[in-house]
Specification:
40% helix, six-stranded mixed β-sheet, 18% strand, alpha/beta, Rossmann fold
């Protein structure tokens, strides 16, 4: 494994700002306090604004080589700061797999392919690749929402007796992943939170007062009300393992 490079704080923050600015300029960040995004269906019993008023098209991270390199640099910085040793990288199927492969190449360690469903021919297993029991796996996903897909991924990896505890990501939408990760002993480690995006956009005067609820209102007014509702949702969900 190569030694990941830990960036100086000023360089790390500059990379983050450049990525956010680029995503906003390319309209990859959708910012709308009145819109109901697709992952809101995870909490249908909540009122109108349980999800952050921001949506990120994470595929854009993978479409531009310059900013993809900045994202990889930040991910390597995060690995360096964790001071943990990994022997494999695995991406959460399917959209996270390309970045996971790039990350494994930069770390000079193997990549394993965790399938959504087991193959109907060949090995008939959930995981493709060469690995040994007890090897440590670094998981990568583009974005954390409710955490369901990450939890399912970890269960498949752990079923093969691989050691998996850490998942890296680009953004955490802060709508319940923390509870599912805690329950399954998963350490979620995103590069950005929604608030990090919003703070940058406020600084650049890209956020203006809208009719009704604003992005700022979400953090100052709504989030303190929503947080215990999401916690109760997880505590009372009969379908969770």
């Amino acid at each position: 494994m190569l030694t990941p490079k830990e960036l100086p704080d000023n360089i790390r923050l500059a990379y983050e700002d450049e990525i956010i600015d680029w995503l906003f300029a390319t309209k990859a960040i959708i910012l709308d306090a009145k819109r109901r995004f697709h992952f809101q269906s995870a909490y249908p019993e909540l009122f109108d604004y349980p999800c952050p008023p921001l949506y990120l098209d994470e595929s854009v991270f993978q479409s531009d080589p310059i900013h993809r390199q900045l994202v990889v640099a930040l991910l390597l910085d995060r690995v360096a700061r964790m001071q943990l040793h990994f022997q494999k990288v695995a991406g959460v199927a399917d959209s996270a797999i390309p970045m996971a492969i790039i990350l494994s190449e930069q770390l000079d360690i193997g990549h394993i392919w965790v399938l959504k469903e087991p193959k109907v021919s060949g090995t008939e297993r959930h995981i493709e690749g060469i690995y040994k029991p007890e090897e440590t796996v670094l998981t990568y996903d583009n974005a954390f929402s409710t955490g369901d897909s990450v939890v399912k991924h970890f269960k498949k990896v752990r079923l093969e007796k691989l050691a998996a505890q850490v998942v890296l990501g680009i953004i955490d939408y802060d709508i319940g992943s923390g509870y599912s990760f805690l329950e399954q002993r998963i350490w979620g480690n995103p590069l950005f939170t929604v608030k990090r995006f919003v703070d940058r956009l406020i600084k650049l005067n890209h956020i203006t007062k809208r009719k009704g609820v604003t992005v700022v209102d979400y953090f100052e007014v709504l989030r303190p009300i929503i947080e215990p509702l999401i916690a109760q949702k997880w505590a009372n969900d009969p379908g969770r393992d």
